[in-house]
Design brief:
single chain, 665 residues, alpha/beta, 14-stranded parallel β-sheet, three-stranded parallel β-sheet, 19 strands
C-alpha cells in the first residue's frame, strides 16, 4: 500500500497556520518538499528575522554569510506580496564588520508595513551612527504593538498618526526634533494603553507624557535625566525605577491604583547628603508624590523612602491608600515613614520587606532606634492598620523589640504575618525526618507528622519560600521519597517534590542590588553538567529555548516574574524529569524527546516556554503532555476546528448511508 500524503491535502489556510508555528527559516525550507509546497511559505503570517543566529564565531566568511542572509530576507519578503503579515520580529547586528546594512533593515520594515503588520518588534545591536526609524512606522493604520529597541533615531513628521496602537515600548532610542519627541508621539496615539520607556545611556532630555487612554506606564532610567511630566487621568498602574530625575514639573495621575517607586541617586553624592556636606539632593520629588496621592497600593524601595526624606519637607494626604510596602536595606533609614503613616488615614495593610534599617534618631515613634517622648502622640496609635506583614524575619533582639513596639502601638491590628526563614527550614527538615523514620507500609503517627509538615510548607508565603530555596541546597534530599515503601509517603512525597520544583522555578537567582534590579540571563557555562554528552546537549537546547522568553515578554509584571527565573536551573530540572521518566535520549522515547525540544524551541510557541520557565508547567507535567497540548493556543484551536469538521463530515456521511439503506429496504 502506498503511503498517502495527508498533510499536503489540507487547505492552504490550515497549512499556512501550521507553518506560522515554526521558525521562518524552517517554513521556507519546506518549499523543497514538492510542487505543492513550493510557495506555501508565503502564507506565513508571523515572521521572525534574527541575523544574530547567522553570525559565526570566527571572522571567516562572515561577510559572505551576511550577504546571503540579506538576500534570503529580500527574497522572503518579495514573495510575500499580496499576503498578510501580522507580526514581524527583527533582531539584527548593524554597523559591525560584515553586519546587516541599515538601509536593508529600513526597506524590510517598510515592506511589512505595506502588508498591514499589526505587531512590530525591532531590536538593533548598533556600532556606529544610528539610522532613522522609517517614517512609515509612525503613519501605520494597522499597528497595535510597537517595540523599538536601541540602534534607532526617531524623527517625527507633522502627519504622525497611529490610530490603533495600544502598546508602545521605546528602549534606548535617540530623538531628533526637540526634547519632547516622546510626548508628541504619544499624543498621536489616541487608544494607547501601555507605555514602556527605558533608557540605559547618559543623555539629557525632557519628556512629557500626556494621554487620556493610557492605563499602564513603566519608566526606567539607568542614568541621570532632567525632567518628566505625567498627565494620564486614567492610568491605573505606574512603575518608576532607576535614577531619580531632577524635576517633575507636572504629575497628574488621578485614577492610579498601584504605584511602584524604586528610585535611587549616585551613592557618592548620597553619602554627602547624609552627612550634610552637600546640603539637599538635586531633585524635587514633591510634584511626583502629590501626583500619586490617590494611589491605593504603594510600593516604596528603601532608597526611595530615603530620597523622599531629603527631597520633601511635607507629605500630601493619601486618603485612598490601603496598602503600603516598604523595602529593606540596613544602610537606609525610616525617617520619612512616620509622616507617611500619619498622612494615610485609611491604611489597612503595612508590609515590611525586613525590619533591619539604618539606625537614626529621626525615625520618630515608628521604630525603637532611640527612646521617644511618651507624651508625644504616636502616629501608630492613630493608625487604622489591620494587617502587619514582616518578611525575612530573623528573630534578633532588635527585631523582637520592634515587633513588641508594633503590637503595643497599633490599636486596630487584627492579623500579623511573620515570615521566618528558620521555621521554614525546620519544617522541611521535620518532614524529611518523619519520612525516613517510617519503615513499613502501614499508616502511623510518623506518616501523619510528615503530611502535617508538608501542608504547613505549602501554606508558607511564596516570597519566603523562594528566598530560602535560592540560598540553600534544600530539595536535594527528596529523591528517596519516590522509592519509599510506604504508598502514602510516596504519594505525599510527590506532592512535596512538585511544591519544591514550583518554588525553585519561581525563585530565580538572587538579585544583586535590590528587589527591582534586573537579573542577567545566565550563559551555558553556568549550567550544571552531567558528564553525559547527550544529556548535556538536551539541557543546552532547553536553556537556549528558555532564554528567549525574556525578549518575548512585553507586559511589565510578567517580565519581572520571567527575569527572576534562572533558565539554566529550569533547564536542568526539566531535563532531569525527562531522563527520569523517558530514559536516555537514544532510547525508545527518542521521538518524545524530539517533540518536547521542538515545541520548546518553536518561535511561534512562546506560551509553552514561558509557562515552563515560571513554573506553571513543571518537568513531570511536560513529559506527560501530548503534542497537541504542547502546541500553541492557535494550533490547539485549529486542531479542534479540524476535528469538529471531520466529526461533522462523518456524521453527515452516516446520515446519508442510513437514508440510502432505508430507501433500498
Amino acid at each position: 500500500m502506498n503511503a498517502k500524503d495527508v498533510i499536503s491535502r489540507l487547505p492552504d489556510e490550515v497549512l499556512g497556520r501550521i507553518l506560522s508555528l515554526i521558525s521562518t527559516k524552517e517554513a521556507v525550507s519546506t518549499s523543497v518538499l514538492s510542487k505543492r509546497w513550493k510557495n506555501m511559505f508565503v502564507l506565513v503570517s508571523n515572521l521572525d528575522i534574527d541575523d544574530r543566529q547567522s553570525v559565526p564565531k570566527t571572522k571567516q566568511n562572515r561577510i559572505e554569510i551576511h550577504r546571503n542572509y540579506m538576500a534570503f530576507v529580500d527574497k522572503l519578503l518579495d514573495t510575500q506580496r499580496g499576503s498578510s503579515i501580522k507580526k514581524l520580529t527583527l533582531k539584527s547586528h548593524v554597523g559591525v564588520r560584515g553586519g546587516t546594512d541599515s538601509s536593508r533593515i529600513q526597506s524590510w520594515i517598510c515592506n511589512v508595513l505595506d502588508h498591514g503588520v499589526m505587531d512590530l518588534d525591532v531590536f538593533i545591536t548598533l556600532k556606529g551612527k544610528s539610522p532613522p526609524v522609517p517614517a512609515m512606522i509612525f503613519k501605520s493604520k494597522t499597528l497595535v504593538k510597537l517595540r523599538v529597541g536601541r540602534g534607532f533615531t526617531i524623527k517625527l513628521s507633522q502627519d504622525v498618526s497611529l490610530p490603533l496602537l495600544r502598546t508602545l515600548c521605546l528602549d534606548s532610542v535617540n530623538f531628533v526634533g526637540g526634547h519632547n519627541v516622546v510626548g508628541t508621539l504619544i499624543s498621536r496615539c489616541p487608544v494607547l494603553e501601555e507605555l514602556v520607556v527605558e533608557e540605559r545611556r547618559c543623555v539629557d532630555w525632557t519628556c512629557s507624557v500626556s494621554s487620556p487612554s493610557l492605563k499602564r506606564l513603566h519608566i526606567r532610567f539607568d542614568r541621570k535625566f532632567t525632567s518628566i511630566s505625567l498627565d494620564a487621568p486614567n492610568l491605573i498602574y505606574y512603575k518608576h525605577s532607576g535614577y531619580v530625575l531632577g524635576k517633575y514639573p507636572n504629575v497628574k495621575l488621578d485614577s492610579l491604583i498601584e504605584a511602584r517607586l524604586n528610585l535611587r541617586m549616585d551613592e557618592t553624592r548620597m553619602v554627602g547628603v547624609r552627612n550634610g556636606s552637600l546640603g539637599s539632593i538635586p531633585a524635587d520629588m514633591r510634584n511626583l508624590i502629590n501626583g500619586i496621592r490617590n494611589v491605593r497600593i504603594l510600593h516604596l524601595s528603601s532608597h526611595t523612602l530615603e530620597l523622599l526624606y531629603f527631597s520633601c519637607k511635607e507629605m500630601p494626604l493619601f486618603d485612598s491608600l490601603v496598602s503600603l510596602s516598604i523595602g529593606n536595606d540596613k544602610a537606609r533609614g525610616w525617617q520619612m515613614l512616620p509622616l507617611l503613616i500619619k498622612n494615610s488615614p485609611n491604611l489597612e495593610t503595612l508590609i515590611f520587606m525586613g525590619l533591619d534599617h539604618y539606625i537614626t534618631n529621626r525615625c520618630g515613634d515608628v521604630c525603637v532606634c532611640y527612646d521617644t517622648d511618651e507624651s508625644i502622640t504616636s502616629c501608630l496609635s492613630s493608625s487604622q492598620v489591620k494587617v502587619l506583614e514582616i518578611l525575612s524575619y530573623q528573630g534578633t533582639t532588635r527585631e523582637l523589640n520592634q515587633m513588641k513596639h508594633f503590637l503595643e502601638k497599633l490599636p486596630c491590628l487584627e492579623l500579623v504575618k511573620i515570615c521566618v526563614k528558620q521555621e521554614f527550614l525546620e519544617l522541611y527538615e521535620a518532614a524529611l525526618r518523619a519520612a525516613k523514620s517510617v519503615k513499613g507500609v502501614k499508616n502511623s503517627p510518623k506518616v501523619s507528622r510528615f503530611v502535617d509538615a508538608r501542608n504547613r510548607l505549602k501554606d508558607a508565603p511564596t516570597s519566603l519560600a523562594c528566598e530560602v530555596v535560592s540560598k540553600t541546597s534544600m530539595g536535594k534530599g527528596l529523591s528517596f521519597l519516590n522509592d519509599h515503601k510506604n504508598p502514602h509517603i510516596r504519594s505525599e512525597g510527590r506532592l512535596l517534590r512538585d511544591l519544591w520544583m514550583k518554588i525553585l522555578y519561581a525563585s530565580g537567582r538572587e538579585k544583586s542590588h535590590d528587589r527591582e534590579t534586573q537579573v542577567k540571563i545566565p550563559t551555558h557555562s553556568t549550567m550544571k553538567k552531567t558528564g553525559d554528552s547527550k544529556r548535556d546537549k538536551v539541557r543546552e537546547i532547553l536553556q537556549t529555548s528558555l532564554v528567549k522568553v525574556a525578549s518575548e515578554i512585553v507586559d511589565t509584571e510578567m517580565k519581572t516574574r520571567v527575569t527572576a527565573c534562572d533558565p539554566s536551573v529550569v533547564a536542568v530540572s526539566v531535563e532531569s524529569a525527562m531522563f527520569e521518566k523517558l530514559g536516555c535520549f537514544m532510547g525508545p522515547h527518542k521521538a518524545k524527546y524530539r517533540s518536547i525540544l521542538f515545541n520548546m524551541g518553536d518561535s511561534n510557541n512562546p506560551d509553552l516556554r514561558r509557562k515552563v520557565l515560571i513554573g506553571e508547567i513543571n518537568g513531570e507535567r511536560l513529559v506527560t503532555m501530548e503534542r497537541q497540548e504542547m502546541g500553541s493556543e492557535k494550533i490547539q484551536k485549529e486542531v479542534q476546528r479540524i476535528k469538529e469538521n471531520a466529526r461533522f463530515k462523518e456524521e453527515s456521511r452516516m446520515k446519508i448511508l442510513q437514508s440510502a439503506y432505508m430507501i433500498m429496504t
